[in-house]
Amino acid sequence: MTLQLFAYQHSVYSWIARLALCEKGVSFELVEVNPFEEKPSESYLKLHPFNRVPTLVHDGFSLYETGAITRYIDEQFAGPLLQPVDPRLRAIQNQLISIADSYAYWPLVRQVFSHGFFRPKLGLDT
Fold it and tell me: HEC string of the chain?
């Protein structure tokens, strides 16, 4: 079995996919991709046409979008369940994930974390 996770070290979504794989006890090769490069890799664009991260490649099967990846990991591999079995509880889980994606990501990650982390590294005022 070959499993590769194309990810960016500072991406919250890449970390979510990594955590799902680790929680399931699945070994994988981590391939670093910088989605902010000026000229994206043509080979990576074939895996992910929007040049985002993460992307999972499992035995030739390629999948992008964190929600799809984590559900696939949960259903494909043995180990502790990452999703509730009860449909209502699973729906609530999906609702909470959607709330975080839709309303919390931009202010918490793009405005607070990114400015506090990257601006000093770039020598910019904080």
Answer: CCEEEEECCCCHHHHHHHHHHHHHCCCCEEEECCCCCCCCCHHHHHHCCCCCCCEEEECCEEEECHHHHHHHHHHHCCCCCCCCCCHHHHHHHHHHHHHHHHHHHHHHHHHHHHHHHHHHHCCCCC
| Alpha carbons 41 and 44: distance in angstroms, whole number | 5
d(CA 81, CA 77): 9
Which position has the token pair 């400015």? 115
State the burial class of residue 123 (Cβ atoms within 10 Å of its Cβ: 0-12, 13-18, 19+).
exposed
CA-to-CA distance for 1 and 26, rounded, in angstroms? 10
Q: List, for the chain, all residue ranges whose pLDDT scores fall below the cut of 50.
A: none
CA distance 113 to 70: 24
Q: Given this model, what pLDDT does residue 1 score?
A: 72
Residue 64 CA to residue 55 CA, distance in Å, equals: 4
